[in-house]
User: Fold these one by one.
Assistant:
Number 1:
Amino acid sequence: MAAILARAGAGATAAGGLRSSGDVRRRRNAVAVVAATTTTGAGPAVPQEGSMERPAWSGETPLSRLVGALIAFKPLYSLMKLASREVIIRTAEKSNVPWREMTKQVLESDVYEVFDRIRDLNLVYPDYYLSPFHAYDEGNLSWLAAAEAEPATMSIAKRAIPDAGSIEEANQIVRGNWLNAIEEHHLKYSGNCQINDILDIGCSVGVSTRYLAEKFPSAKAVGLDLSPYFLAVAAHKEEKLSRQNPIRWVHANGEATGLPSNSFDLVSLAYVCHECPARAITGLVNEAFRLLRPGGTIALTDNSELSPVLFTLMKSTEPFLDEYYMLDLEETMRQAGFVNVHSILTDPRHRTVTATVPF
């Protein structure tokens, strides 16, 4: 594990470190903290300062325009979309993720009964959410997307830590670093406020929500998502578990949850922002600020830099990827009222941005 962490940290430092003066124009204004893996014995990694940069292929660059032109050509777009899906499935199967078996188990279960209980028929979906996502024409509003979400998540962890001996080990690193970043930020800036109430916005099928509930077992956790299909899978899986505080699942829009103000100590958005246009990300951050108590922590974990090839494949299934990379997320959080804004590269492919609601 230590050797794998060291290699992961080397990749993270390379992705987040300073570049040549010719690339300064692309550098983000915000200072980030890059999670190094220099450890003392079995101790935790020590964060180091670095700069998070806007990738060369985002925005109005020749490469970005080329990718946009490729996607605009429908026959090629269809091939790119299929290729992106194949990359994820192939990676999963090579890593011994039983993709098809896991999908079949969900689709042949009684999850459909849970769907009827959890869906809010009065919910109006924002226009951006009705776009195709992840090679699904219906986006997140389909059973296949919901059934494949967990194996896809497992595949992402393995791709982030390719030297891990198993999916479980990759998840320990990816999720462990993310959870540690949250805990350390809250301990440092919350004024000794306990984490009693957690909201996981964009919880999908509940993978991140379950990790949060296990990390903070005395807290009450709520998983909220726009997709009743995802929530039905999350709730169905949770019914089989025994937990001190069962997770509550809410079908709602993360930009306007309808939940009471000042009612949470931690709001998490895990791998949500890259799927949203800039206006929606701003709305999510503002809503999180409203929902958090003074001293509460927001934690957003999402993509850092990707290779141009992977970006090209992802952009064919992620319509708002450019907007995510062009947005100064740290400044957006400050404008919402957050303080103590910090970014950590928690693995070579993902960063976690944490901040605090002032007292």
Number 2:
Amino acid sequence: MKAPLPLRSKSFKKSRGASCSLPLLLLIGAVQFLVIGKPFPSLLMDSSRRAFFNLAEEEFIPEPQVSCDFNDTRSDYCEMTGAIRIRGSTSEVFVMTPRRGTTAGDVVGDNATWIAANATSWKMQPYTRKGEARIMNGITAVTVRLADADEAPACEVMHDVPAVVYSNGGYCGNYYHDFNDNIIPLFITTRHLGGEVQLLVKQKQAWWFGKYGEIVGGLTRHEALDLDGDARVHCYRRAFVGLRSHKDLSIDPRRAPNNVSMVDFKRFLMWRYALPREHAIRTDDEVAGGGRRPRLLIITRRSRRRFMNLEEIVAAAEEVGFEVTASDLMSPAKKQGGEAAVVGDGGQARMADASATVNAFDVMVAVHGSGLTNLVFLPMNAVVVQVVPLGRMEGLAMDEYGVPPRDMNMRYIQYNITAEESTLSELYPRGHPVFLDPGPIHKQSWSLVKDIYLGKQDVRLDMARFRPVLRKALHLLR
């Protein structure tokens, strides 16, 4: 029985539509009539001839071009062009070759040292926490195969845009990791494609695409496919397996396509959420003009690492010269009239509300934790103050939330609390290793670190120490 012709995606049909003007078409028709006696022969093909040409186009197999990087500490990544067939039900990506016996050594770049030269397939886990075995054990692997026409499944849907294959699993649902492990890597990997790309998602979380719909919609004009739930064979001319990832909550423009940076990412978010403020207040200008006071946002937490003397902090900030608001930014968004947002909106309304709230401020103060991720919505030149709890968290705090503000043209202040400012002093004697030597606790297990320093600790800031930090933040706005 004759195999059915592959379907073409809507995007393919759109891009293949006629773009010639009428005079040009008439000229082409006249030339063809003079040469072969029949104008527009391709338009007059019968269905069998048209089918033949479509089939020939599908079965033409160019030399593949594959470039992989398995040396990066954060993620594995492959980019491939040619005839690519992807079958989600078996988690396989087929790179078509015009001849049998093609191996990795024939097509893969020199930097793919992890692949044996004689290999005809290799596995990849398309998630950006490569060094964390505990979380990577839950990431579904994708197999990339080099295959000739007899070894690969037939095309069922053909696309004219590139594909990006990646996993939506891992830490999905943690606000920091949503941006760090998925959103920013997606931006790095796809932004240069101008929306003409399709996401093929392993372990896809539908709610995630609802919550971050504005961001995803700015990166692709095409529906993201649930690769685990789609048994069809999708065919592309270009595909990426895995996402590029550079550093915590940031981008290295030297390694990014088109040299995109975190400033570009910040402007992208401003566009998607219609945020009005690109730059924070300049206090000298406002004072000279009799304008408003600078605004300071204190991000509160519902569980541990709370500010236990919040009223004191607010009063001190107002005394220094700020207009102060405290918020957890996690309450459901409100409709007009004060009603709660519609249940089941996937968090999209909450994201719009949180981004607009943060963008209205000039300084943000928060204890180390996922709430600091909201710094991506602050205007440039704003100031981020991170309060770091006990437990040798200073290096981690700097990497996760200290470097990103500087990469986004913002200012950063890190405030490391003392034992007297930690509620751990109410749980352990001052001679306990929790205070004297956290190193062995870190070596013993990260779970123990999280349990003690992140799970049991609140902060009570010493205002004699913290008030100068508030003055410095005000000074940096000049």
